[in-house]
Amino acid sequence: MDVAEGFLESKILPFAAAALVITVGIAFLMEGFLESTILSFAVAALVIIAGVAFLMVQNWRHSCANLQIKIGELQAALETAQLQRAAERKGRIRAQQALRKALVEKDLTKSDMMVYPMIPIGIIHSCFSTRNGTPRQPLLVPLARACLTLSAGGVPPIAFEGLEGYSHCWLLYIFHANTDLPHLWMQPTHQDFKAKVRVPRLDGAKLGVYATRTPHRPCPIGLTVAKVEGVHGRMLFLSGIDLVDGTPVLDVKPYLPYCDSIPDAQTPQWAKADYAEDPLALASVEFSKGFPADLSKCWAVTSKHSMYSGPKEFQKLIRQVLTRDIRSLNQRHKPHNSTMIVFHESHVTTGDIETFLSGSETTEDDNAKCDGYVDGGKFNATTAGAPFEMQLTTGFKRPTSDFNYDDIIYHMILEGIKIDYSVDCGKVVIRSAELSHIWSAAIPECNYALWAKVVGSLSK
Q1: Measuring CA to CA, how many Å separate 55 from each of 50, 60, 61, 428?
Q2: Alpha helices in 219-349 (DSSP H)
Q3: What's the pLDDT tens digit per position in 133-142?
Q4: How far is Cα 99 from Cα 460, in angstroms, rounded to an integer?
Q5: Over the stretch 273-322, which tens digit does the pLDDT of each residue have?
Q6: Residue 322: what are its φ and ψ, rounded to 5°?
Q7: Which of 17, 321, 385, 401, CA to CA, is 20 to 30 A from 167?
Q8: What is the DSSP pairing of strand 284-287 with strand 427-435?
């Protein structure tokens, strides 16, 4: 608008005024002043229109010339950018070829082995606060819930776009809670790695590590499948999970039945779902009369961060977890070899007690939990034994010949609630519940309210 006004003031108005003066002067010289005045105004209008048209044509030609210059500059910039991208592609291709060549020619017996750039994309928030109680295989506990949260500033949430169209997905993760990880750092060549492990479903018989699903592997990387419940921003909601809280996840892939499911796949008899002699199958799970009241007290504190609707649904989770024996081989086979009442106050710290409650893993069992005991009044957290109900007394005693297995109290922690239970002749009795110092790494918004909202919107 400013350009147009300036153009009128500087070009058209002076030209029009001059044309009008000249026309009026000519009209005075002609006979019939009235008629000549009308004629003069008409001539003046024609002169003005012609002048405006001429100036507009000149301005259009000037604008076209400027546009041609700008187009030329943009084309030159585009050609330069294309050449740069082509050079970058060639550089990446050459770098990839050099890397592949280096990997082929690399002597893996040397200490300077290759390290690959793999960083976890996110962390699992799971209902399993510790390894003890985490299922050995996926989908065995349908109510086991988890939320994978992408790391802030890492992979963007749009990476989950489309995943809700699949019913299940694969998760590639790290066995971060393995107690032998420091040894793997010290001995990356795996020369001293124990290549055979005890298999729970074989009741302790040993197999090669690659014929089992043990977490203790030369490269501590795990693969599991889970049900996709929904996606919300940078959070992926899952169920049927078998991952402990805080597990770092490396990758997520959709489950494709047409190529991931093999109907005629063969497995050993002991690895089949209907294995009649499965030593991990338990006959029944019952709750003590006082357990609901204990759980209600805990729920008043943990409910706002829980992924479950209430104590009743949480009890269903507990029942599903304990339907199969989660104890280690040592806990199942040698409870009578462990000390039952145990700690000398001068040697035991709070950390020792909590380590004793949760267990520390040192055996090659797929989900083995090795628990501490007291020897001569000194706490020992490296020798296998069953975790018994503790009394802080001086000295210790061993079980007698009339030992009652129902007196042995085992523990697991779900969403920060410690569950005490006993096992006798395949029957599980869940005794009590109390808050644990091991709290979940839950993010505030990852709770049942959001779970119900996301899962409900997906099912509609």
Answers
A1: 9, 9, 10, 99
A2: 257-260, 291-302, 311-321, 329-333
A3: 999 999 999 9
A4: 49
A5: 888 788 888 999 999 999 999 999 999 999 988 999 999 999 999 999 99
A6: -90, 5
A7: 321
A8: parallel
